[in-house]
Amino acid sequence: MIDDPIGTAGLVAREVRSGTRDGAPTRIAVARRTYATDAADLWEAVTAPERLPRWFLPVSGDLQVGGRYQLEGNAGGVIERCDEPRSFAVTWEMQDRVSWLTITLSPVEGGTTLELVHEAPVDPGFWEQFGPGAVGVGWDLALLGLGLHVDSGEPVDPELAMGFTFSPEGVEFTRVAATGWAEAAIADGDEPGSAHEAGERTVAFYTTLPEGDPAEG
Questions:
Q1: Where are the domains of the chain?
Q2: Which of 11, 21, 6, 5 is nearest to 118 (CA)?
Q3: Cα three-residue angle 104-3-195, rounded to 5 degrees
């Protein structure tokens, strides 16, 4: 799917911040990547229902401020704000967990920078196990798909996307991304040894085939 997994993973700048919402502690994963297209095209790619399935997931619902959206087989939530073509904010709801996602587009020389900010309440056990990597690598993979779609204008092959992290290139991409998130967590104050151990567990989570998977071996 990609020829240079290390270079492609390096296109994303990663940051971790500590925050609070309603007095409760949160951790914030920030990912930035620049795409070689204008803001109008990138905005359409990340918001238009007909384009989202080409690189991410089908979306349904009342797609306006105050309405609810649902990504097929994934998160849903409320569209809280939309400032076309610059930014939008939604709640990110899965089962009984609510977090918050903001996407901002900024024109730069040669393209448009997308900034993704995902803020979630702190689950101490989950953070100790995976740090920011479980969420962060998931977004890295989404931003990879977006880049493939923007560069080619074509849909990403869903079968290739589903099997990517089990390929040698996908394992390398995931390891670079997870290490980047571990380093970002260390910069925000996490203990280095624990952060890197969490990063290794993240790599295993994304790159280990389920037992009995027919693709195994």
A1: 5-207
A2: 21
A3: 60
| Region 186-190 average pLDDT | 98
Q: Compute the radius of gyration of the chain from its Cα atoms.
A: 17
- Tell the residue number behind the tokens 């995931």, with chain if given: 174
With a CB cutoff of 8 Å and minimum separation 6, the contacts of 157 are: 1
pLDDT digits (tens, 9 = 90+) for 40-72: 999 999 999 999 999 999 999 999 999 999 999
Residues 6+ apart with CB under 8 A from 5: 169, 170, 172, 173, 176
pTM for this prediction: 0.95
**Which one, of 116, 71, 75, 115, lies nearest residue 99 by Cα?**
75
Averaged pLDDT for residues 1-11? 96
Q: How many Cα atoms occupy the beta-carbon half-sphere of 7 within 13 Å?
A: 3
Domain 5-207: give its CATH architecture. Answer: 2-Layer Sandwich (3.30)
